[in-house]
Amino acid sequence: MKSPIQSYLESLHAELSSLRSGEVASYIPELTKADPDWFGICVVTVDGVAYTAGDTAQRFTIQSVSKPFVYATALADKGRDFVGRRVGVEPSGDAFNSISLHPRTGAPLNPMINAGAIASAGMAAGTTAEQQWERIADSLGVFMGRPITLDEAVYRSESDTGFRNRAIAWMLKNFGIIDGDPMAVLENYFRQCSVLVDCRDLAYMAATLANGGVHPLTGRRALPAPDVERVLSVMATCGMYDYAGSWLYEVGLPAKSGVGGGIIAVLPGRFGIAICSPPLDEKGNSVRGIEVCKRLSRDFGLHLF
Ligand code: DON
């Protein structure tokens, strides 16, 4: 017999499948190949049980959902003080690609906007960009519970067209926020955005944060316990960009979205939630993803406050 949560997710999925607004991201040409009908919901509990509805095995690129996990990697590798000098924790209320840097220090306002995420990628352990990529890839794999793979076509497409991110990376170099070659750091950022995931992978990553930093199935620690609250805090205040305030008000959970159509949300100590649905609203957040989270929060009283 189906559990009540399984039946609930299936009927929510069926209901929201008919929600047809939003556009698939097109500013990275290769992303237009996503099917607007892909729609998956997955909830993973801290003891590793997964509840799924819809296209939860469909692969897509992680995009900005990678940002909290790479920020976590920077915190683990360089420590809170070092990272805090190079990336702030203030919501910018700006779009994901805004050049929101502190006017005096040049530090990006937070690690969820591109500027802060590129800076975070540059703080992964390693003395060369290649070593830093190995560290980022390994860390994302521990969060996911399996080795990562890239969508090479999306990576090339973003690298070929990411001129604004190039400008941001050079600004960061100008302020001494990036050591070494900013273009090599940026390529690692493009790679982290091109990591292939399915909805289950994202839900396990979210559940790892819910579980105090330990993957619920592998038992491996993905980040030191004190860093979990830091990562969840910036997800709560900055994870949904210029929708972050409304999100926290209405859904009340730390979260992160990506232009591939993924959203994760975390209920600490209980479970991780992931949705995949590529059509985005004008702020770059998955339309169905937001709706699923609003409904789960309301129907189960998940709002943290
Ligand atoms: O920096 C970029 O343009 C992308 N690779 C990632 C952006 C992203 O997912 C923003 N999120 N909504």
Count of extended strands: 7
Inertia-based shape:
globular
The CATH class of the largest domain is identified as: Alpha Beta
- Please identify, by name, the CATH architecture of the largest domain: 3-Layer(aba) Sandwich
SSE string: HEEEHHHHHHEHHHEEEH
Mean pLDDT: 96
| Structural class category | alpha+beta
Structure ligands: 6-diazenyl-5-OXO-L-norleucine
| Widest β-sheet, arrangement of strands | 2-1-7-6-5
Query: Which parts are unreliable, with pLDDT below 50 for 5 consecutive residues or more?
Result: none
Specify Rg, calculated over alpha carbons: 18 Å
Can you identify the CATH superfamily of the largest domain?
Answer: DD-peptidase/beta-lactamase superfamily
Total number of domains: 2
Within the CATH hierarchy, at the fold level, what is the topology of the largest domain? Beta-lactamase
Oligomer: single chain
Describe the sheet with the most strands. Answer: 5 strands, antiparallel
> Helical proportion?
40-55%
Can you offer a commentary on this structure?
With 305 residues, the protein is α+β, with helices and mostly antiparallel strands. It has 2 domains: 4-63 and 197-300, DD-peptidase/beta-lactamase superfamily (Beta-lactamase, 3-Layer(aba) Sandwich), CATH 3.40.710; 64-193, Beta-lactamase, CATH 3.40.710. The protein is built from 11 helices and 7 strands. It has helices at residues 4-16, 67-86, 114-121, 129-144, 152-161, 163-174, 182-193, 199-210, 225-238, 244-250, 287-300, and strands spanning 40-45, 50-54, 60-61, 196-197, 255-257, 262-267, 271-276. The strands form 2 sheets. It has a 5-stranded antiparallel sheet with strand order 2-1-7-6-5. It has a two-stranded antiparallel sheet with strand order 3-4. It is globular and about 60 Å long. The two termini are 34 Å apart. The structure holds 6-diazenyl-5-OXO-L-norleucine. 6-diazenyl-5-OXO-L-norleucine binds at residues 63-64, 96-97, 114, 158, 165, 193, 257-259, 284. This is Glutaminase. Its EC number is 3.5.1.2. One of its GO terms (molecular function) is glutaminase activity. Keywords: Acetylation, Hydrolase.
